[in-house]
Amino acid sequence: MKSIPDASALTGWRKSSYSNGDGGDCLEIIDGLPADIPVRDSKHAEGPALFIPRNEWTAFVRAVRNRDLSA
Length: 71
What we know:
The chain is α+β, with helices and mostly antiparallel strands. The chain has one domain. Helix content is 17%, strand content 27%. Strands 1-5-4-3-2 form a 5-stranded antiparallel sheet. This is DUF397 domain-containing protein. Pfam families: DUF397 (PF04149). InterPro entries: DUF397 (IPR007278).
């Protein structure tokens, strides 16, 4: 996983479908990139973004959908 300090110049961010309209905790990602998935905190768009390998992101999303996350 890589991080860049300022991801605000990247375009195409979308909020998680699990976000609500109250401005609560949410993630933003950019879909459709060939390799890593950029992920950032929507409340701090000027802050850092993580770049998560596609296969690890896919496994994470699958686990969330299946409610298969262990503490």
